[in-house]
Each structure stands twice: as structure tokens, then as C-alpha cells.
Write a structure and sequence with these properties.
Arc Repressor Mutant, subunit A, Beta-Lactamase, 16% strand
């Protein structure tokens, strides 16, 4: 056996070992998703079976699984399929969160430096809010606050989520929360969709929200919405106060205006242009040397 033969057999063995870790069902499901394109947005099982050389019965099962997870949906209530919202969520929300992180991190760092408080950017993912950026306070007492990038919390039960849902109608909320009662984490958690909607309206009208131990005891926050070029709420900026209540002196120092200013600045960076002219974010443009 020559050295070249030994080398060739070694490569084959390594390839076989790697292929042993593959999950055929997952591989086939992903291949189905990649067949859809702008040129061919709608495809059926027979065509997918022919292209991928997979038995038609197997394709049907894969399509039904992908449909149940939201990655595919029926086209015109027929046997044909098109990409579903779950695929869009994987792509667009990921890109959106990256853009928010890239543009927003210097802003929340400036907010942190101005207030001395830990600041975050959050987005909504369905029924959850997700922390996508963090500027940690240098104060020692913030070490007890265990919220990191990637942390998820229930949207309806948090002030962050209620502000993020500021564009939703009552019908939208009922579709998102079909259950008759909402689980209460504290006595301040909204128990019904109607109560949740009332809180959302109040926060939307005033343009910010304050929470004092409404979700987690001993944690208070000030939160303001961030909008994109369509005017839609896509994120919030928040500061965290590790106290059961927010001291009057802290509010008197202009904390609310500072949080709103940071949110307005990020909105401007996302090309949001309010009809009423410039927002309060110009202060943060100066702080960032812009």
C-alpha cells in the first residue's frame, strides 16, 4: 500500500465520520427551504421531490413539519407552499438586531456615562422581549442585576414589552394572546388583554414608561421606544435602577428626558423622521461627537 493510498483512505474515513453526525431529516428540511427564491416563491411537493430526489411521501411529511413550525405556509390554500414568517424572523430580525447593536451601543454607553445607570436595548420576538445590547454601569451595586444580552422575558408582563407593543391594536393583542387570562408574576402584572391594552395606550400616548418593581421586586426601569424609517416601534432603550422605587431626585435630574433623548437619537440613526421636526436626541449626537 502506497503512502498516497493510505492518505486517500484516511480522507474517506474522515468524511465518513463527519457524515455520521449529520441528521438526514434536518438536512432535507433545510434543502427544501433553500429551493424557494424570489423567482420561484411558490413550490409544491411533486416538484420538490423531483428536484431533491426525495420520495414524495417524505417530502409531504417534511412540508407539514415546516408548516407547523411557521417556516412554510400554504399558498392560496392549495397544496403549494411558500416561505413563512419564521424564516423572515430568522433573517430580518437578526439583521435588525445587528443594526440596532451597531448603531445603538455608543448611544447607550453615552446614556450610561450620563446617568451612571446600566442601559439596554431590547427588541420583541413574538411573545418575548430580548436584550440585544448592554452598557454596564461602573457602580458596584449593579453587580446584583443579572440581565445579559440574550436574556428573554415575557413581553406582556414587562414594561419593556408593553412599550414595544405600542403599535399593536386590541385585535393584534388578542391574536398574540388567545388565552382568557394572563399569568400574573406580581400584583402589577396585567391579568387580561383589555388591561394590557390600556397600559400600552397610556405608555404610547406619553412616549415613555416607568416601572417600579412591576416585574421583578427591587428593580425599577425607565423605558422609551425606538422607531425605524417606517415609524414602527422596533426596539426600546431602557435604564435600570436596582431599587424598588425610583428616587424623586433621580427623576428631577432629567432621567426621563435622557432616556427619551437616547431613544430618539437611535430612531434618527434608523432614519426615523417625526412629522413634528427634530427630537430631543440632538444632545446625544453632541455627546457622540456627531
Amino acid at each position: 500500500m502506497t503512502p498516497d493510498t493510505i492518505k486517500a483512505e484516511r480522507v474517506i474515513d474522515e468524511d465518513s465520520a463527519e457524515s455520521g453526525y449529520k441528521v438526514p431529516g434536518l438536512e432535507r428540511g433545510l434543502k427544501i427551504l433553500t429551493e424557494f427564491s424570489p423567482r420561484e416563491p411558490v413550490l409544491g411537493a411533486p416538484e420538490l421531490s423531483r428536484r431533491l430526489k426525495i420520495p414524495r411521501t417524505t417530502v409531504f411529511r417534511l412540508l407539514q413539519t415546516l408548516e407547523s413550525l411557521g417556516f412554510l405556509e400554504r399558498a392560496d390554500k392549495d397544496r403549494n407552499y411558500r416561505l413563512g414568517v419564521a424564516v423572515l424572523r430568522l433573517g430580518f430580525e437578526f439583521l435588525s438586531s445587528l443594526e440596532l447593536t451597531d448603531l445603538g451601543l455608543p448611544i447607550i454607553e453615552a446614556l450610561r456615562n450620563d446617568t451612571g445607570l446600566t442601559s439596554h436595548i431590547l427588541i420583541r420576538d413574538g411573545r418575548d422581549v430580548v436584550f440585544v445590547a448592554k452598557a454596564q454601569s461602573h457602580a458596584a451595586f449593579f453587580s446584583s442585576v443579572k440581565v445579559n444580552v440574550g436574556t428573554r422575558l415575557p413581553a406582556y408582563a414587562t414594561t419593556h414589552g408593553q412599550v414595544l407593543m405600542g403599535d399593536l391594536s386590541l385585535a393584534d393583542l388578542r391574536a398574540l394572546y388567545p388565552e382568557p387570562k394572563l399569568h400574573c408574576f406580581t400584583k402589577l402584572t396585567p391579568a387580561t388583554i383589555e388591561e394590557l391594552y390600556e397600559r400600552i395606550l397610556v405608555d404610547a400616548q406619553r412616549g415613555f414608561a416607568i416601572s417600579e418593581s412591576s416585574f421583578e421586586r427591587g428593580i425599577s426601569v425607565v423605558t422609551a421606544p425606538v422607531r425605524d424609517d417606517t415609524g414602527r416601534i422596533v426596539a426600546v432603550i431602557t435604564t435600570t435602577i436596582p431599587r424598588p422605587e425610583i428616587e424623586a431626585a433621580l427623576l428631577d435630574s432629567g432621567l426621563i428626558d435622557k432616556v427619551r433623548g437616547a431613544a430618539d437619537e437611535l430612531s434618527q440613526r434608523l432614519n426615523y423622521r417625526p412629522k413634528n421636526g427634530p427630537t430631543t436626541g440632538s444632545k446625544y449626537m453632541k455627546a457622540l461627537g456627531l
